[in-house]
Amino acid sequence: MRRTFLIARREYMAYARTVGFWLSLLALPLFGVLGAFIPVLMERAEPTREVVIVDLTAAPQDGLVAPGVAIVQEIARADRQAEIDALARAARGAAGLQAADQVRAVAERDGLEAGRAELTRAAPVAAQGFTPPRPSLVVRGTPPELARAQDVAAAEAAARPLLSGENPRFDGVVLLTGEAAEPQARVWAAKADDRTIQNRVREALREQRRTNALIAAGVQPETLRRLESERPEVQMFSPNARSGGEVSMADRMPGLVGFLLGLILWSAVVTGASILLNSVMEEKANRVLEILLSSASPAEVLTGKVLGVAAITLTVLVVWGGFAAAGLGFAGQALPSVAQGFQAALGGLLEGGAVFWLIAYFIGGYLMYAVIFAAIGAFCETPRDAQSLVGPIMMILIVPIFTMQMAVRNPDLMAVKALSWVPFFTPFLMTARINSQPPLIELVGTLAVMVAMVVLMIWLAGKAFRAGALSTAKADWKTLLRLGRA
Amino acid sequence: MGAALILEHVGKRYGAFQAVKDLSFEVQKGEICGFLGPNGAGKTSTIRMILGLTNLDEGRISILGARDGRRVRDRLGFLPEERGLYKKMTPVDAIAYFGALKGLSMAEGRKRARGLLERQGLSESANKPLKALSKGMAQKVQLAAAVVHEPEFVILDEPFSGLDPVNQQGLEALIRDLARGGATVLFSTHVMQHAERLCDRVVLLAKGQKAFEGTVREARASVPRTLEMEGPALDAAALAALPGVIEVEASPEPEPGVRAFRISLAPGAATAEVLKAAFGRGFEISRFDVREASLHDAFIRLTGIEAETGQEAAR
């Protein structure tokens, strides 16, 4: 016991004292935050494109929409829609799903001003920090040299200089030709790989044809505009929702939390196991393992190392948990509804006793993989030796990453249920499923199978560890299994 | 005194390969015993069985009264053949850690570590990471780690390999200190010179079997001493007739007109008696030289194997 503790403590200190350990500890939360902000930053950094429209089509028939006008209208519609989406998003984060629906409804019915007012009412803090998205496209007045052009060739000749050079005057020139009813567009862009203008023009012209077809069929333009802003109200209910009826943010969170916990377990297992592998490998390479085994039993050495690395992994989890709590506290102000949903989901884990199952799966999952990696390490002196042995196990470890996503979206899927019984996947899949209240028989059954596997693995790995520590045999699966059996 | 270590008919097989066969020997308390043999003779296998690191297939071992090294772990000190330590640890921490595994408190381990390092002239390096130390220094640290808990029985597997002659001498002094402090020392080596200087007794091992067990003097006595003689009119037949002579061999003439012979003496024959008889019979002897057998000679004679000479140690 004393020796086990000494070995565990040395193992812990050897890592906890290195700067690299703390750096890598901070790296994940840092990249997590960066990862969350990068899409937002990229959206913010999206430039506003300035385009000019040259309409060479004949004037349209009475009542019908000209293509140039259609493009301007489409741009306005898209900008408005983008702002409504942004308003709803801000409301959802801060005040929940219902508030978001409400803000969207008001904005669509009564306009953006009313939508902003509704956001201010529902979520004052979020409204204060709200900035409308920048328009992706604006139409500028046609410069005289383009306006003078009578045909496509002349217009294109005039357009070229406007789009060339270090700082082109415009980002795009849209030439509309052919019939007004069925126009063709030639989009000239300053950047050859920028397809935004092309896509928006195509969308606008499709809309124009639809509108014109409906008007030609006798539909009043007034009716069309009304239909445009129509938004049927659809609410979602479930007897299993937290409120007992209407589905809210709190109902979506548990699945996400389960997936996150599964991922955390997975990364803890992979990190812990590879630390253990490297540590045993170092001791094998410099023969410290032989001295250790002359000072303590193989079981004491193996247990000590596994516990020491468990303590390291626990430190990692605690630090990450600290970051998560801080993030949740911060989010509690900016996005109260997300934070509340999250807290409710975590609270649910405690209430339902699920946390005890989680702890059992965490410990079992960690032990199962840790002892395997330690046994492998006892046969290897270099990472190259270890590669062929670790490869198959890493392949096994990839499977839960994919199935965990399935388990969250559809926890009752037969494949997910079946894979949960495979001890190597049990800890990850059951963790991901924990919030969908799996039947007790599955909880107990999978845990029992896993525990049996853990016991078997500890026994086998213990033998392989002892054999490997003193052997100079080549490191491959055949040797490992043969020595494990001996 | 009593035996600290007894091996009785010990055998070890790896598959079809018999690494150790019917090996029996004893090491008395407080003595320095050399465990000699060429590479691959089964020394490391035997040491691992004594420590309880591997099981024996046949026979019985008794170490400090226990039948397995594992039962008396804390009273044993062990230095494995190929060595290394945790590269990032300091010598003081490493020595204290291994001491703690053997039952010392960390504080006591640190205190003793500083004392041991000072005696080895390593005070300045006591708190540097081990990777900053030279190989010889690291080896001294490792030896200190093996004996910090003042074990009753110390097993050193090839302790001299990789050390320069100065450090080899330091190590010899250290082993003598251990024995003077009452510890029993068993060390393996394939370099005979160290054993010759250090050991009370030696066990010779060849191809997994014991070839000899006894004192260094006894080992040497198993090889006939030789007497070299030169003279202008010496005669092989006359020399062979001298008492105690078992064989006479002619050597190349050192200079024209001078004949040289190499005379092997029977075990126990007194050199002085042989010489007295030669002069008494009126032989004209211009030069004579008595050559004592070395442990190396004894080893070759006892095992029939050409052992590596001391030259390797100086490399």
From TrEMBL, chain A:
<keyword id="KW-0472">Membrane</keyword>
<feature type="domain" description="ABC-2 type transporter transmembrane">
    <location>
        <begin position="239"/>
        <end position="461"/>
    </location>
</feature>
<feature type="transmembrane region" description="Helical">
    <location>
        <begin position="389"/>
        <end position="408"/>
    </location>
</feature>
<feature type="transmembrane region" description="Helical">
    <location>
        <begin position="21"/>
        <end position="42"/>
    </location>
</feature>
<feature type="transmembrane region" description="Helical">
    <location>
        <begin position="443"/>
        <end position="462"/>
    </location>
</feature>
<protein>
    <submittedName>
        <fullName>ABC transporter permease</fullName>
    </submittedName>
</protein>
<dbReference type="InterPro" id="IPR013525">
    <property type="entry name" value="ABC2_TM"/>
</dbReference>
<keyword id="KW-1133">Transmembrane helix</keyword>
<feature type="transmembrane region" description="Helical">
    <location>
        <begin position="306"/>
        <end position="335"/>
    </location>
</feature>
<feature type="transmembrane region" description="Helical">
    <location>
        <begin position="355"/>
        <end position="377"/>
    </location>
</feature>
<keyword id="KW-0812">Transmembrane</keyword>
<feature type="transmembrane region" description="Helical">
    <location>
        <begin position="256"/>
        <end position="277"/>
    </location>
</feature>
<dbReference type="Pfam" id="PF12698">
    <property type="entry name" value="ABC2_membrane_3"/>
</dbReference>
From TrEMBL, chain B:
<dbReference type="InterPro" id="IPR003439">
    <property type="entry name" value="ABC_transporter-like_ATP-bd"/>
</dbReference>
<dbReference type="InterPro" id="IPR003593">
    <property type="entry name" value="AAA+_ATPase"/>
</dbReference>
<dbReference type="InterPro" id="IPR025302">
    <property type="entry name" value="DrrA1/2-like_C"/>
</dbReference>
<dbReference type="Pfam" id="PF00005">
    <property type="entry name" value="ABC_tran"/>
</dbReference>
<dbReference type="GO" id="GO:0005524">
    <property type="term" value="F:ATP binding"/>
</dbReference>
<dbReference type="InterPro" id="IPR050763">
    <property type="entry name" value="ABC_transporter_ATP-binding"/>
</dbReference>
<dbReference type="InterPro" id="IPR017871">
    <property type="entry name" value="ABC_transporter-like_CS"/>
</dbReference>
<keyword id="KW-0813">Transport</keyword>
<dbReference type="Pfam" id="PF13732">
    <property type="entry name" value="DrrA1-3_C"/>
</dbReference>
<comment type="similarity">
    <text>Belongs to the ABC transporter superfamily.</text>
</comment>
<protein>
    <submittedName>
        <fullName>ATP-binding cassette domain-containing protein</fullName>
    </submittedName>
</protein>
<dbReference type="InterPro" id="IPR027417">
    <property type="entry name" value="P-loop_NTPase"/>
</dbReference>
<keyword id="KW-0067">ATP-binding</keyword>
<keyword id="KW-0547">Nucleotide-binding</keyword>
<feature type="domain" description="ABC transporter">
    <location>
        <begin position="5"/>
        <end position="232"/>
    </location>
</feature>
<keyword id="KW-0536">Nodulation</keyword>
